[in-house]
Design brief:
Elements (H helix, E strand, L loop, with lengths): L14 H74 L7 H11 L10 H9 L8 H39 L2 H8 L4 E3 L4 E3 L17 H43 L7
Antiparallel strand pairs: 1-2
Helix pairs in contact: 1-2, 1-3, 1-6, 2-5, 4-6
Length: 263
């Protein structure tokens, strides 16, 4: 029987062929690497833009919140001025309904709050790294960092009110009328005067008015006013300005990236 032996090719690759194959493989891996990086950068940049869009919505809500809060805090200050003048003229005990109205406003807790969801997402997800505008990144971080200071001031004010204002409210103000006058838009301030728009009970008084310590009361209110003014001067108003500045920067960034949502 004839035995057939397997045929072994005698052709050997040249070094140039090995080099060419290595180069082609290297080129394919390199191009794949760059393509993946480009794709990843595009995806992350898109996520960053979506986060900036969410931040834009939060900032606009914050801006309205600052306006509303500052307007109310100014009204509280006006109430304090009105009843302080009555007290200095020894007329306050003849204007008890106005005191109820003023106290109900002054005793209201009102502080602007900062929406942090979008800014926290930007920081925690690393999306800030995909924003090329260094000025915008800096302003976002600066604005977000102010949230803690604003929260501390809120705790400072509310703690003082818990300790000093609320006990006076519950001890000396007749509950039913105080609740009525505290309702929305039940009095106006016009020309340094308070105009009450609801029916006032006859002979409205403070509870235990004969023993009420007026000097102590106005000292407590004056301190609250000082705390609030300090908060507005050092935090609320400067942060409101930051918010408005950041809104403009975010709007420009989104417009440049064709991502500004028209409303």
């Amino acid at each position: 029987m004839e035995v057939h032996h397997p045929h072994h090719p005698t052709h050997k690759k040249k070094w140039s062929e090995y080099i060419l194959e290595f180069f082609m493989l290297f080129l394919a891996v390199t191009l794949g690497f760059f393509a993946e990086n480009i794709r990843e950068h595009y995806v992350e940049k898109h996520k960053a833009i979506v986060s900036i869009q969410n931040l834009y919505k939060d900032l606009k809500e914050d801006s309205v919140n600052y306006i509303t809060s500052i307007r109310t805090r100014n009204k509280q200050d006006s109430c304090f001025e009105i009843i302080s003048q009555l007290y200095e003229k020894n007329e306050i005990e003849n204007k008890i309904p106005l005191l109820y109205a003023a106290h109900s406003e002054i005793a209201t807790r009102i502080m602007p709050t900062m929406n942090k969801m979008a800014s926290d997402q930007l920081k925690n997800s690393g999306a800030l790294n995909y924003i090329e505008d260094e000025r915008l990144k800096k302003e976002i971080q600066s604005y977000a960092n102010d949230a803690e200071g604003l929260k501390i001031r809120e705790q400072r004010e509310y703690s003082y009110m818990d300790r000093m204002i609320d006990p006076i409210t519950t001890s000396y103000f007749e509950y039913k009328f105080f609740q009525n006058i505290s309702a929305f838009e039940n009095f106006d301030i016009t020309q340094n005067d308070i105009k009450i728009k609801i029916e006032i009970p006859n002979n409205l008084r403070l509870n235990k008015q004969a023993t009420f310590d007026w000097d102590n009361y106005f000292s407590i209110l004056a301190m609250l006013r000082t705390i609030r003014k300090s908060t507005d001067r050092s935090y609320t108003i400067p942060i409101q300005k930051k918010c408005n500045k950041l809104i403009e920067l975010v709007r420009i960034y989104l417009d440049e990236n064709n991502a500004l949502i028209k409303e």
